[in-house]
Amino acid sequence: MATKKRSASEKDPKVGVKELRARAEKAEARADRWKARASRYEQDAAELRAQLRKVTKRLDKVQRPGVASRSRPEQPDATWTVVRLRAEARARGLTGATRKSKAQLLDALAT
Strand (E) positions, 26-70? Predict the structure, then answer.
């Protein structure tokens, strides 16, 4: 009958305890590193949320509906791109702007 080899920890319980303590310390060190990384990520996220709030607030000031940023609003002309014309149509509340050509958008916005 073949005998099974025993590890050092099975022969001496004190050695097994030392090995387990060493493994536990390594695991705690890894956990601490992960916690530190998570904390850094949370700080970064908080800073990004603050930046987003500032940018959103500035954007809201610029895009307030009904408030003209200039004394005389700019009228669309042929130099405007279709994307800009569609954005202006959306801002004015016109529907169906995505299906219209540039000429049709200019006509709709001129009135």
Answer: none
Q: Do residues 9 and 15 touch, judged by C-beta distance below 8 A?
A: yes
H helix count then E strand count, the chain: 4, 0
Residue 85, judged by CB atoms within 10 A of its CB (0-12, 13-18, 19+), counts as buried
Asked whether 108 and 79 are in contact (CB, 8 A), the reply is: no
Residue 9 has a CB neighbour count (10 Å cut-off) of 14
Tell me how far apart the alpha carbons of residues 84 and 89 are, in angstroms, rounded to a whole number.
9
Of residues 49 and 2, the one with the higher pLDDT is 49
Residues, the chain: 111
- pTM of the full structure: 0.40
